[in-house]
Amino acid sequence: MEGFRVYLYDKNGNIIGIFLAPSQKKFEADKLKYCSEYREGENFISYTEIKNPVLDKKTGEVREMTISEQVQAGILILSNGQYLEGEEIKTVTKPNDWSIWDKNSNAWKVDNDLLNKKLKELREKALKDLAEAKSNFLNQPLEIEKSSKKYTFENNEKNRNRLSLKISLMWVLEQDKIEKVKAQNDKGLVEFIELNRTELKVLSKKIQDIIEVADIAEQMAVTGLERYTIEQMLELNVSDFFQN
Fold first, then answer.
1. Residue range 57-115, pLDDT digits in tens
2. Which DSSP category does 165 fall into?
3. Which residues pair with 57 in a beta bridge?
4. What is each CA distance from 180 to 88, 120, 194, 197, in whole angstroms?
5. Distance CA 69, CA 76 (A)
6. Cα 67 → chain centroid
7. What is the pLDDT of residues 20-29, one digit of tens each?
8. Does residue 159 contact residue 190 with C-beta atoms inside 8 Å?
9. Nearest to 193 by CA among 153, 158, 142, 165
10. C-alpha separations of 125 from 121, 122, 190, 234 in Å
């Protein structure tokens, strides 16, 4: 059966060895019998293992280091955002990616280089998102009404160019209508419908209005991106610029 453990430390807090005795009472009655290396005033006894031992100058006993002593000794390393308040480690949550920890003031402070780098990343992403949002807005499907029936015009660049070419030819040939305008009926099936001048004007105006809104919105967005704060950039949704 394992005996009573005695831990012996030197004056620097280094462990000398672990010794066994039948009991604490018997050990204290004859220390040298069970621990021949023990020297009164030169080394120190503990009946529990001390993980980070230090000699207490006031009591003359070996004890566990306090939190602050462990920090001073480099045993305990404080991370960024941590500081000592008495014997308690306080933690301040990092507010953003562009702040660095100031140990002198125990506070996070904005680093302008990191801030500008983040702003640049956000603006570059916003410009890509802007191009996609504009494309989605430009290519939104348009409704055509013909003979009390509703159709959908697939408003992409290819179809817009085709329609523009057909309208130009219609004017040149002095025609009153275009017979083959590709559209989808209410069941989602493709049909080629006939549109007269009035109906074409309505469709063309819808397309032109969308193009004008998209161009203006894009200009406003690009201008805004250059002056927005990083907080505004983080909340920005470029799709909000494009409204019918």
1. 888 888 999 999 999 999 999 999 999 999 999 999 999 999 999 999 999 999 999 99
2. H
3. none
4. 80, 48, 6, 13
5. 9
6. 32
7. 999 999 999 9
8. no
9. 153
10. 6, 5, 37, 11
Query: If you search the block for the tokens 């406003």, which residue do you land on?
Result: 220
Site of tokens 């960024």: 80
Domain boundaries, the chain: 4-64, 73-110, 117-241
d(CA 136, CA 18): 76
Q: What angle do CA 184, 186, 187 make, to 5 degrees?
A: 85
According to DSSP, the β-strands at 142-146 and 149-153 are antiparallel
Encoding tokens for residue 19?
């010794």
If you search the block for the tokens 């430009």, which residue do you land on?
138
Helix (H, G, I), strand (E, B) or coil at 24: helix
Using one digit for the tens of pLDDT, what is the confidence trace for 147-189?
889 999 999 999 888 888 888 888 887 778 777 888 999 888 9
